[in-house]
Amino acid sequence: xxxxxxxxxxxxxxxxxxxxxxxxxxxxxxxxxxxxxxxxxxxxxxxxxxxxxxxxxxxxxxxxxxxxxxxxxxxxxxxxxxxxxxxxxxxxxxxxxxxxxxxxxxxxxxxxxxxxxxxxxxxxxxxxxxxxxxxxxxxxxxxxxxxxxxxxxxxxxxxxxxxxxxxxxxxxxxxxxxxxxxxxxxxxxxxxxxxxxxxxxxxxxxxxxxxxxxxxxxxxxxxxxxxxxxxxxxxxxxxxxxxxxxxxxxxxxxxxxxxxxxxxxxxxxxxxxxxxxxxxxxxxxxxxxxxx
Length: 292
Description:
- It is a single chain.
- The chain has 292 residues and is α/β, with parallel strands linked by helices.
- The chain has one domain (2-291).
- Helices cover 44% and strands 20% of the residues.
- A hairpin with a 2-residue loop joins strand 6 (195-199) and strand 7.
- The longest helix has 24 residues, at 55-78.
- The model has no long low-confidence stretch (mean pLDDT 95).
């Protein structure tokens, strides 16, 4: 089954990107107007995030989000046959901003949100950064698609660490110099063990793992966001968060990330995964104080 799916998608990926975007347009029409994929979640999230905007303004953001959503899937298919040069022409970043830290022998940690297009970002970063590039991923329940995306994400040298078994998967690399990329706005499996912050005016839990890892290893932390100057072109932006995280009070680094994430989402609202249930859990007093 894997080779049947892979072969079909490979043939599809050979089409010019402009033609593939016609498929994306059709997929957008289906999931937005016909199926209504997670529309209630998306619009509730947007209302929480932007109560000051009109319904018309939030609807405009939602439509752009769904277009980015389907574009990302089509662009992932294009990765199957696309050359490095093809992707690098369309995905830009100031790689020297990160590579300058390589000479000091210290490792680096990227913290980013659920942000389009993370698939192309992974591919280019693994090639352009001097570091051993590690990325945490969530295994898919569909075994065929899990194998397909695993191979796509690893094809340029990325070492993938399953989120379900990250500590053990990290063991072979813990004494090496690496760059670890983490999507740090994941919902925690156990909300009682998370830190809670007011996020867009409502309490939301954030996992402790990224900060704890950075503090334990005193890893340089860089915040990351991606924006889309035009269709099919992306720019990844880096921002130094902390060079010595073990000198910060507990939860301070995560607080920085939460405020950073809020800021960049406000600037580029259609680039964040609004179908992700960021406010899935309700805060309870036994979870501890809400950090402002």
